Each structure stands twice: as C-alpha cells, then as structure tokens.
Amino acid sequence: MINIGIDVGKFKHCAAVLDDKTGEVLIKPFFFSNDQEGLRLFYSKVNYYIRRKHAIGMEDTGHYMTNLTNFLLEMKLSVKYINPHTTAMRRKKLGMSAKNDRKDALLIAEMLSKKKFWRSVSKTSAETSKLRELTRLYHQLQEQHNQDMNRLQRALDIVFPEVNRLSWTRYSKAYMQFLAVYSSASSIACEDIRNLRKALKTEGRGR
C-alpha cells in the first residue's frame, strides 16, 4: 500500500510518500500552500501513486486541515486522521526531540501502516463534524447573548431604571432602538416631546 503523510500547517503543508511494503520513500517531503493552487500541486505530484491502494494521513489538529480534507474527499481519496498525542508519543519514542515538518510528514506516513494509530474519515463523518462545530458555536453565542443582556439590564438598573416600567417587550426592536437613542434618564430629561414621540414610534413586531 502507498502511505502519504501530511504535516498540516496554517499557510502550508508538508507531504511525503512512502511504500508501506518496502519502506522506500517514493517522494521526499515537499511543501505545498494551503490554497487551491497548492492543493492542485499536491494532487499532481501524488497522482501516479494514488491510483494504487493508498492512505493519506494527517494529524487531527483543528481547522487548518479542513480545506485539505474536503479537497481529498472530493477527489475520492482515502483519508485518515491520527491523534496528535499518538504522534507526539511516537516522535518521543524515536528520539525526535523537536518538531520538524519534513520528518513529521514521513513519521505520519509510517504510522499509517498500523491501523491502531488512525481513524478513517468520510464525507459523512466530515459533515457530522461540521454540524457538531456549528452546534457548539450556536450554544456559545447563545451564552454570550445571555451574558450581554444581563450586563445591559445591570447598567439600566443603575442609569435608567424607569425604562423597564414602560409597557413594551424587553429586547424587542423598538426597545433596543429606543435605548440606542436614549441610554439614560438624563438623556431624555430635557428632550423635545416631538423627538420622544418619534423615537417611541419605532416599528416593531407589536404595536
């Protein structure tokens, strides 16, 4: 089998191609940019070898590998993820004291030889991962929104407690736009009644 190891980076990746059976390095480590041009370069260099049974592996390190993974799956290639802690342990066992992109690409290619080191990635699992990230982001934003609303109410309780005695829905469009114009009781104390009436006529979902 042909093993292709990729050390993922923010702006560029490093790849190497290894013959699993003989251990021969078929393509020495080379760099390609993390963009469409770089991905096409990678594909052109490994195209000859991926016609055979192959595995393309990389560390599961976050969003820097997303575009690369999507590209490989679109090309119907076999993609594997390796736990970075496993790679770190393997690197330490081999006496590799410092991280090196070229050596890591070869190390990842070598680790593809043993199934215990990796897990397969498919379009379905990639989509599931995206949905999981979106769900996590939604809950984070919801929590942040609640915190912001609590801060707003604390500030209003100090500088404009009268505003919540009016008959409108908190955080409604009319409520928020009114506060954007008049953020405290003192800001409306000497305001012209016509301007106040205009501010209160802000269109919302209710009356």
Quick summary:
This protein has helices at residues 36-46, 66-74, 84-93, 101-111, 123-159, 173-181, 193-200; strands at residues 2-7, 12-19, 25-33, 54-59, 79-82, 118-121. It is of the alpha/beta class. Strand 4, helix 2 (66-74) and strand 5 (79-82) form a beta-alpha-beta unit.
How would you describe this structure to a colleague?
The chain has 207 residues and is α/β, with parallel strands linked by helices. It has two domains: 120 residues, Nucleotidyltransferase, domain 5 (2-Layer Sandwich), CATH 3.30.420; 48 residues, no CATH class. The chain contains seven helices and six strands. It has a six-stranded mixed beta sheet. The longest helix has 37 residues. It is elongated. The N and C termini lie far apart (70 Å).
Structure characteristics:
7 helices, Nucleotidyltransferase, domain 5, alpha/beta, 207 residues, 46% helix, 2 domains, elongated
Question: What is this structure's SSE topology?
Answer:
Elements: E1 2-7, E2 12-19, E3 25-33, H1 36-46, E4 54-59, H2 66-74, E5 79-82, H3 84-93, H4 101-111, E6 118-121, H5 123-159, H6 173-181, H7 193-200
Parallel strand pairs: 1-4, 4-5
Antiparallel strand pairs: 1-2, 2-3, 5-6
Question: How widely separated are the two ends?
Answer: 70 Å
Any idea how many domains? 2
**Secondary-structure element order, as H and E?**
EEEHEHEHHEHHH
Task: Work out the helicity level.
Answer: 40-55%
Query: Looking at the chains present, what oligomeric state does this protein adopt?
Result: single chain
| Order of strands across the main sheet | 3-2-1-4-5-6
Task: Kindly report the name of the CATH homologous superfamily of the largest domain.
Answer: MutS, connector domain
The unreliable regions are none
CATH architecture of the largest domain: 2-Layer Sandwich
- Our Rg estimate from Cα atoms comes to 28 Å
Count of DSSP strands: 6
User: Sheet with the most strands?
Assistant: 6 strands, mixed
Quickly give the structural class: alpha/beta
Mean of all residue-level pLDDT scores: 89
CATH class of the largest domain: Alpha Beta
**Shape estimate:** elongated
